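Troubleshooting log. The previous run stalled partway through. Resubmitting the same four chains, unchanged.
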Amino acid sequence: MKRISMIDVAKAANVSQATVSRALNTPSRVSKETLEKIINIIKETNYIYNSAAADFTRQKKTLIGLIVFTLKSSIQTGLIDGIQKEIEKTNYSLIIGNSHYDPATEHRLIQEFQERQLAGIIVAESTELNRDFLRSVHKAGIHVVLTWDKNEDPVLDSVGIDNYKASSDMTNYLIGLGHRRIGFIAGMYNKIERVRHRFEGYCDALKAADIPIDHKLIISTTPSALNGKIAMAQLLSHDPDLTAVFAASDALAFGALSAIRDKKLRVPEDISICGFDDAEFSSFCSPSLTTIHVPTEEMGRCAANVIVEKIRTGKENQLKITLDTNIIIRDSCGNPPHKK
Amino acid sequence: MKRISMIDVAKAANVSQATVSRALNTPSRVSKETLEKIINIIKETNYIYNSAAADFTRQKKTLIGLIVFTLKSSIQTGLIDGIQKEIEKTNYSLIIGNSHYDPATEHRLIQEFQERQLAGIIVAESTELNRDFLRSVHKAGIHVVLTWDKNEDPVLDSVGIDNYKASSDMTNYLIGLGHRRIGFIAGMYNKIERVRHRFEGYCDALKAADIPIDHKLIISTTPSALNGKIAMAQLLSHDPDLTAVFAASDALAFGALSAIRDKKLRVPEDISICGFDDAEFSSFCSPSLTTIHVPTEEMGRCAANVIVEKIRTGKENQLKITLDTNIIIRDSCGNPPHKK
DNA sequence: CCATGTAATGTATACGTATTCATTATAACA
DNA sequence: TGTTATAATGAATACGTATACATTACATGG
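Second attempt completed without errors. Output:
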């Protein structure tokens, strides 16, 4: 059973294939009778338009790719949702690749996307190792937008936030409350640029306040509630003087709260906790979590709009957009307890 | 600046386009010298293989589509992650559509996917309104897999869970603890089949225990922590006799916990709460949430494997897979308080 | 030395559509 | 009635690749 094409429809309707094409694309250029005839035959034969072939003929690219490190994190959900919502308004479709934090996989995905003739690629977070490759892809005519971080790239577009500033602001907030021994739990800042910037923001804020950086207070792990709990338990057992912990992701902070409860300590009376992301659960947990609001969905929408706009206009000007973040003060941070 | 094709490479290498094609696809069928020559020219010219054109020529479909109701829900994350992980092992890529709970949008997406020549479509949850259409798409040769629910469809494949049974089991668990006035908060069961099955499981369990169904105890809303909080607050203010609430989604249960804290009531001493999904946060919140574990990632993996297998073998046999769920008993449910 | 097999390559065609250009018929207008 | 614009359609070609078939050169075996 062969797939039926426009040619079959054309034969059945006693017209040329060109006319069928016109009937579907520019019906006004076809007479009322033939249009009707063609429509009927299409219905009878269950003909299905092949848009892939059409895109090929038109030399038109209709896919936009998204590359993420992980799909599991609920943080990405907002970003993907935002991207998808904007893209679905256009004639493009979204195709998703997962690099699993692996630069080689990321590289393969980028190449695959390029060969698949994607119109553009949004890279949620990219290893710096692949920046050169991305620039070459960009040069070859595929639009690239980086997200999640305020980007220093000289060529590529980006839509992100200032992780460094947000992190140093939050650290300063804790310092302002009187904390001196402030722990830091974060994702893998050796691998992920934006996390490194958060780490640097934390370090620089401490330095500026003449607080020495103590590497025993710093833990890098894969962000999840479970790992946050484990990391917090570790900090608590090693360092009784700790009065605050900055978890650079709400999932980690959420897990940390659980570890603190297990130790029968109170938040924020005994210890202060703050997060980063403003995930949905953060305002409903107990105590509610002081954190940094990140406009993930807006970031996604904006990135999608940038790439669609670039594709359409073909303009070469570089766009770097930095969205605002702000500290959301809730109930999980307070002054440090008085020295015993 | 024109895109360079195999023909350009062929000319530069003084060979035919066919030879270039062979050099890339079946290098063993090309002599060592010409292969080397071609490789070099490809590097020099920055030629990029056009896999879209190749797919077209080969009449090969290489995309698999996923249609979801929403991307915001963290529940979907596990499913998508599982699907993606299996698909990336194959030569297919994943393309995502969001129907936003709208049957018409879903219909449009299905058609779009069909015209785009997708090899298969995984429908996370589909309106029953589009079942006929999906069956016709299936009949036209595009593989379709439904997920999330144990499916009664006579034709389509499915990988899901038994929402009805899981829900009635959980309700029976609450009844077994001694509860008689049991509230129910769920997503939109008038729109979503799997939620309706959860609702029916709840109702039938009550009936079987001779407990009358009180519609004042039942709230349907969009699943989110915020809406769970709102719904719970409403239940608490309307019905002081309530001793337990079954929230048919952990996000709703999580919000409900927050509303109960606001009323200065204790869980589970004053009121029991249970959820559905076993989201990541459910074991770390306070109290930890008794819920139904749903193997979302496995469901995704399985659905992806089913569709890939069907595509490859072209077999016609219908596959209906129902994965096990189980009640995870944690700290949020107990016996009802003694009557005052 | 001939027959046969095989490796390496070229030629030609197909995939399903959009679109340019050419053609015909018809309407509008002077 | 002749001219011209226009509507409707067909014929032909292009998009970039894979591949069946044809061709050539050369090796192997008798």
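Takeaways: Residues 158 and 320 of chain B are 5 Å apart (CA to CA). Chain B has twelve helices and twelve strands.
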